[in-house]
Design goal:
Elements lengths: L1 H21 L7 H19 L1
Length: 49
Amino acid sequence: MKILNLLHLTVACAFYRWALREIDPLHPDVPKLLLRRQELEERAHRLWA
């Protein structure tokens, strides 16, 4: 189960990195994307700890 969670977090982080590269910096959803990416990275970090 831990491997599936890690796989999900890895794919989701990659998606959010891609989305932030492609989206206009002035788009109103940028702060939400940044927060979600930070949450996912923290979860991945806690999973490895």
